[in-house]
Structures are given as structure tokens and as C-alpha cells.
Design a protein that fits this description.
The chain has 175 residues and is mostly helical. It is built from 8 helices and no strands. 69% of the residues lie in helices and 0% in strands. The relative contact order is 0.06. The model has no long low-confidence stretch (mean pLDDT 84).
């Protein structure tokens, strides 16, 4: 998502407020989407400032927002403005999650899954208590590590030798 400067937002809001230009007309002039401009105008009129993006919200907060919206029969935009949520679509996303998965869906962590395995190959107990499978897995991992380390060391040595040869050639060519 493209991030617009505070100055541009202010210029657009002031053009709307002082000159009476519509959000649709301002969208044609300045490029941002009409809905985004309407959101900036509403944010500024309500709070006197623009809300900051990329905040992380707790499950309790999400539930509080949805309950408040339901009790007061508010739109997504009005609810987002009241609670300082940058994008009104966030409230709609939370509602859909709540309807599909209940209260627990709001508390689930979001993000990418790690490509690294979570379980360590090294058992969390004294080495004398390792099973044959655990010890074998550890020894295989150790062997792979050493092979990779040795390959890196050899590659580094080759680079150093090549650099030394290049310097010697350069010295011979200069003489």
C-alpha cells in the first residue's frame, strides 16, 4: 500500500474544507482514491489529525470495537474513526472473522509462518538419557554442519589464493 505524506493529506483536506471541492474532484487532481480522501477528511474533522497506520490490536480491543459498533449501530467508517483505526476495512475484516470463527478468531496471531522448524533436533535432557534415534539425529546434524563449515573454509581459501595470484600477476605486469 502506498503511503501518502502528512503534507499531501493536509493539502487535500484544506482544499476540501476551504474551497468546498468534492472528494471525487480531489481524487482526479491528486491521484489517491476517493474513498481514501473521504476517510482523511473524516479523520481530520473528527480528531483534528490523521491516524497512524500499522498498529497491532489486541483481541480484547477488537472485541470492544465490534461490541461498541453493534450497540451503537455504527458504520465501519464511523467506528474506525472513533477508535483511531486507519482503515475502515479493518473493522469489517474483524467482523467477518468473528462471524466465521467466534471470539477466538479475534485472538489468533496473524503473520507468516516460519520456514525454520520449531522443534530442536537437540533433545532437552542430559546426553546419557538420549535414545538411539535422538543421538543419531544429533550426530547427523553435527556432520552436516561440519561439512558445510569445511566447504565454506575451503571456498574462502580458494578466494584468498586467487587474490594472491592476481596481485602477483599485477606486480609482474607493472614491472
Amino acid at each position: 500500500m502506498f503511503k501518502y505524506s502528512e503534507g499531501l493529506k493536509m493539502e487535500i483536506v484544506l482544499a476540501h474544507k476551504n474551497k468546498g471541492l468534492s472528494a471525487r474532484f480531489l481524487a482526479k487532481i491528486y491521484e489517491p482514491d476517493r474513498k481514501l480522501i473521504e476517510q482523511w477528511i473524516a479523520q481530520y474533522e473528527l480528531n483534528g489529525k490523521f491516524t497512524e497506520p500499522t498498529r497491532h490490536f489486541s483481541g480484547e480491543f477488537k472485541l470492544k470495537v465490534l461490541n461498541y459498533q453493534q450497540e451503537h449501530h455504527l458504520s465501519d467508517l464511523r467506528t474506525a474513526l472513533l477508535f483511531g483505526i486507519t482503515n475502515k476495512a479493518t473493522v469489517g475484516t474483524w467482523r467477518r472473522k468473528y462471524l466465521a470463527g467466534g471470539k477466538e478468531a479475534l485472538f489468533q496471531k496473524q503473520g507468516r509462518y516460519s520456514k525454520m522448524p520449531k522443534k530442536s533436533l537437540i533433545p532437552n535432557k542430559p546426553r546419557e538419557e538420549w535414545t538411539e534415534q535422538e543421538e543419531l539425529a544429533y550426530l547427523r546434524m553435527e556432520n552436516e554442519y561440519l561439512k558445510k563449515y569445511l566447504a565454506l573454509v575451503q571456498e574462502d581459501e580458494k578466494k584468498k589464493q586467487q587474490q594472491k595470484k592476481d596481485r602477483e600477476k599485477l606486480k609482474l605486469s607493472e614491472n
